[in-house]
Amino acid sequence: MTKQYDAIIIGAGHNGLTCAAYLAKAGKKVVVLEARDTVGGMASTSEFAPGFKVSNGAQYATMLNTQVMRDLGISLEYAAKDLPTVVINPDGNNLRMSGDTVSGNLSDSDKAQFSEFKAHTRKFAKVLSGALKVRPPKVVEGDWHDKINLMKLGLKMRLLGTDDMRDLMRIATINLYDVLNERFDNGQLKAAMSLDGIYGNHLAPRSPNTVLNYLYRRTGDLHGFNDPALVKGGMGKVGEAFAEAAKKAGVEIRTGAKVASINVHAEVASGVTLENGDVIEAKAIVSGADPKTTFQKLVGARNIEAGFVRRIRNFRAKGNVAKLQVALKDLPKFAGVDAKDAGGRLVITGDMDYVERAFNHAKYGEYSEKPVLDINIPSVHDDSLAPAGKHVMTVLVQYAPYELRAGWDENKETFKSIVMDLIETHAPGFKDLVEHSELLTPADLEAEFGVHGGHWHHGELTLNQFLMTRPVPTATQYSTPVDNLYLASAGTHPGGGVSGLCGHNAAKQILRTKGV
Amino acid sequence: MKKYDAIVIGAGHNGLTTAAYLAKSGLDVLVLERNDYIGGATVSRELHPETKYSNCSYVCSLLRPEIVRDLELPKYGLQVVPYGGGVTYQRDGNYYTNYDDHDRQYREIARFSKRDANAYERYTADVLKQTRLIRPFLMRTPPDPTSFKAKDLQELAYLASKFTGLGETGMADALRFWTMSIGDFLDEYFESDIIKAHMAGGGIIGTALGVYSPGTAYVLLHHYMGDVDGSVGAWGFARGGMGAVSNALYQAFMAHGGELKTGAGVDHLIVKNNQTKGVVCENGDEYYADVVVSGLDPKRTFLDIINEEDLPEDVIKKAKNFKIRGSSGKVNIALDGLPTFNGIDPRSVKMKGDFHFIDSLERMERAYDDWKDGTWSKDPFVDLLIPTLVDPTMAPTGKHMMTVFVQYCPPKVNGEEWTDADRDAFGQTVIDQIAQYSPDFKSLIAHAEVRTPRELEKEVGLTEGNIFQGELTFDQLMFNRPFPGYAQYRGPIKGMYMCASGTHPGGGVMAAPGANAAREVLLDLKRKNVVPEGYADD
Predict the structure, then answer these.
(1) For A219, B126, B205, B399, which has the most beta carbons within 10 A of its beta carbon?
(2) Please, what sign has the CA dihedral across residues B168, B174, B176, B178?
(3) Exposed e or buried b for every residue in B476-502, given b needs 16+ CB within 10 A?
(4) Is B477 a residue whose pLDDT tops 60?
(5) Is residue A12 within 8 Å of A40, Cβ to Cβ?
(6) Band of pLDDT at residue B187, cut at 50, 70 and 90
(7) Reported confidence tier of residue B400, pLDDT bands at 50, 70, 90
(8) pLDDT computed for residue B536 by the predictor
(9) B171 vs A165: CB contact, 8 Å cut-off?
(10) What one-character DSSP code corresponds to residue B338?
(11) Interface contact B372-A166, CB threshold 8 A
């Protein structure tokens, strides 16, 4: 029997769509099956109250890869680029970070170090970035392709020069707490900078791996996102743009087509069964779902070897970020934030010890009593998101562990009021402006987007889940122990963030495979 | 005035090892020790009549067997007696016993979880795999990855070959293990809280990290890679206390014609034209040698005993940024009799091993949270031993000595210097925790010595009281230890070397840094190497 498709892509998230588009451009017949009624996955815009729209998954564009965008012919309209980050305080004595400069009540040394540090880490990001856009090399079994990639990486490190190479090898595995303390004095500045190292992960400034995450974020700088950008119409437009590109390349996209299982017999995948009972077959099944969902739910443990089941079980993917979205009658006034910064990224981070204490709770399955907030009012830049004169606010809240011991159902409202109260202390009168508000916990994100643990990156981005260990050894180059089954989600190398690289790398690798 | 071939600063076990090897090669070597006694943190001291405390390091496993054999330390009185047993108490009084006997241990773990008992074998095999990977590197000088010298490239190739020898998956697993937290690692094998708590101790001892901090699995390895008489992972007591190790090294050194002065704290190095010429002592005495080896930690070495103008700026900066946080305390207790522990027969083997009183990873992590907040742990992780049950030479007949290692204890209390009242309160916290499980313990205490990082720094000279002379994190391991570019035991000044735990492979009574440093000195002096090479146990 000839199969109807060359490839089935499970999930129309941006990585799935990217992979689909590359495969179709290479002449493959591809279908994308999406459970939800809309495309884009976590690059999504939703109308959460009449007339109020918000990016309910990813919030900012920070990592979109220029090469992927160019290859797929995607261009996006931005409502705002280069959003400044303002560290807000109730007394209005704020810090403002924009590009490589920081202003506010700071020592000259801190100001100079800030520029220096951004430039310094960007050099390292350049080295890292080369490794992100190719498959993670196999060191022992690798073919010439892997060897060249490894040599390129080695060469790039050498080209940094002795001092920088040594510094990279020293800091790459450790924590931001120590690295920032070596250079900076101002506690608030350090805490706000550390935000780029903890986003979405079960990490705090003192945790090793935060430098890695910081460098990972800095790779976005190389694509024009030194500071975050807001996409006009919300992140859903990104999802739509990727879907358009895929369609243009000839991909068939079916929404409302929820995959119930990946059909595997004797460790060979032949197709998928939809929830409505339809069976679709293809030469290659590419999962854009996270690794845990893919293997634990769709393939099923009984169809895979026990050691691999164990590895997948040990893949750490429990989200820590909640999202608060608020419909507002008017623009709230944050002390010391002028009109030009009102739509910026307003962060409440205290000092690094504040962040660390907020994290302590998460270790024990509790929400932070004094959380870390990243507040944004995108409607300042984008009037399509709210009725005239009104505004929407989104807040990334850390830490809100996926498995709250006391249960989210019972405690969600309490946590929400903690967050609202904290905002109120920085913007008196804020609560009176609220027309509607809702908090999405990682458990809600899981229910909404089907991502295990509601994890932003589909799995912790740490050294033991990075490069040739992401998601797990034996499934690192987008193929898996199940023949014809491939992975293309953020759970694979290089990881989370809306960059398109996982889908891109996966497609390249699948096209190299014989028989597809 | 007399000129020596080499001066070694500090008579800790590493300084003595370097000195012994340099003397063995025929050099005229002088060791200068600030204290009136030798050993540094490898000492036994009689602080209560007829009772000896190993009041810093207290158990032995890491000491490299090739050095023990080569310097004939048993001839000079070193005898390491392995111990087994030990229990980890639960709050409810139930406890887990650590048996040496495989089948008994299986049954014991199964009492808490059948699944954990089955996983234990896989766990041990996996950890031993990592142990086998690391052991050959202990007696080698780390390569400089930025160098193109033949020696470095060769060494890098050796390192790479060891890694690739594991195979693709094995290598990825090694990478995972080396970078993950001990908590996550144990969660992959075990489900029972107490089993995990029992196993996790080695991941945090001496380290300013919590069980859930990435990198602590490596620290566990650091406590797992030693052996007693070839039994890998086993620990033992040096008979007569840890001072027996330094005494044996001292005697080996003397047998090769060495010279040692106590009460001779070094004030600074004499440096001319970027070449070391000798040292000036605190009392004004001067000693001359073209080779000066520092056994002090990197901070003391570069910020204390070398004049700033003699050092390149980057080294001063690196020394200032060197992480050397105190995180441990110690309570040494002389006892009028053997305390009874709830539910344990005093004659049982259970009494002869490590006692732990913390029964979950969460409690361990919370103990670390206290440290982060600047205080000692209110519910600390302690590692308690009664060495006199294995080595009766430490106390008079019928009496006992107890050693209690405590994690965590900060170098300063809420940012302020320790006061005596703080120290006593810390000691009381520990004693109270023990007394919960031993009703007669408090009444048997004849003398207690409470040591916080302050005492450790003051007496032994370890900055901030860090027992490893610097954190064992990746920015300070292998070719990064103590700093990138200076990991081959040579300092920035010609003729100046480093030989102690602040260098590769790090802390613990291992003697490997001392031996490795001696090898590099001999290489520079173009003398025949007398330091044993390689390692062949696997």
Answers:
(1) A219
(2) negative
(3) bbbbbbbbbbbbbbbbbbebbbbbbbb
(4) yes
(5) yes
(6) very high
(7) very high
(8) 54
(9) no
(10) P
(11) no
Taking CA–CA distances from A161, the nearest residue in chain B reads: B146
Residue in B closest to A313 by C-alpha? B188
Residue type (1 letter), A129: S
Min Cα–Cα distance to chain B from A381, Å: 40
pLDDT tens figures, A212-226: 999 999 999 999 999
Q: Which residues from A are below 8 Å from B171, CB to CB?
A: 139-140, 468
pLDDT at position A3 is 74
Cβ partners under 8 Å of residue A61, min gap 6: A76, A78, A225, A228, A229, A230, A231, A235, A238, A498
Query: 3-class secondary structure for A40-79?
Result: ECCCCEEEEECCEEEECCCCCECCCCHHHHHHHCCCCCEE
Q: Which two tokens stand for residue B66?
A: 């090739």
- Tell me whether residues B215 and A208 touch, CB distance under 8 A: yes
β-strand partners of B287: B279
Which residues of chain A have a CB within 8 Å of the CB of B485? 162, 166
Could you tell me which residues are beta bridge partners of residue B269?
B279
Q: Which residue has the tokens 């990217």?
A: A18
Cβ proximity of B84 and B101 under 8 Å: no
ipTM of the predicted structure? Answer: 0.94
Helix ranges, B143-267 (H): 150-164, 167-179, 182-187, 193-204, 216-222, 243-255
pLDDT surpassing 50 at residue A368: yes
CA distance B529 to B538: 24
B171–A contact, CB cutoff 8 A: yes
Please report where in the chains the tokens 């490839």 appear, as a residue: A7
Q: Tell me the average pLDDT of chain A.
A: 96
Tell me the pLDDT tens digit for each residue of B38-61.
999 999 999 999 999 999 999 999
- Are B169 and B186 spatial neighbours (Cβ–Cβ below 8 Å)? no
Angle ∠(A46,A50,A53) on CA atoms, nearest 5: 30
The reported pLDDT for the residue numbered B538 is 46
Residue B537 clears pLDDT 70, i.e. is over it? no
Query: Which of B167, B175, B212 lies closest to A469 in CB terms?
Result: B175
What CATH architecture applies to the domain B3-43+61-79+240-322+482-524? 3-Layer(bba) Sandwich (3.50)
In b/e form, how buried is each residue of A333-362, taking b as 16+ CB within 10 angstroms?
ebebbeeebbbbbbbbbbbbbbbbbbbbbb
Contact pairs from chain A to chain B, CB under 8 Å? 96
d(CA B382, CA B367): 11
φ/ψ (deg, to 5) at B7? -120, 135
Chain B neighbours among A 120-159 (CB < 8 Å)? Answer: 138-141, 158
Percent of chain B with pLDDT over 70: 99
Nearest CA in chain A to B215: A208
The per-residue pLDDT for range B410-430, each reduced to its tens digit, is: 999 999 999 999 999 999 999
Mean pLDDT of B374-388: 97
pLDDT at B296 exceeding the cut of 50? yes
Task: Let me know: does A203 contact B212? Beta carbons within 8 Å.
Answer: no
If contacts are CB pairs under 8 Å, which of residues 163-192 in chain A contact chain B? Answer: 165-167, 169-171, 173-174, 178, 182
Q: Is A172 in contact with A215 (CB distance < 8 Å)?
A: yes
Q: How many CB atoms lie within 10 A of CB B437?
A: 21
Residue A378: which of A418, A414, A326, A318 has the closest Cα?
A326
In CATH, the architecture of A5-43+235-316+452-512 is 3-Layer(bba) Sandwich (3.50)
Cα separations (Å) of B52 from A482, B11, B394? Answer: 63, 20, 5
Please tell me the pTM assigned to this model.
Answer: 0.96
> A39 with A17: CB under 8 angstroms?
yes
- Which residues in chain B are contacts of A158 at CB distance < 8 A? 146
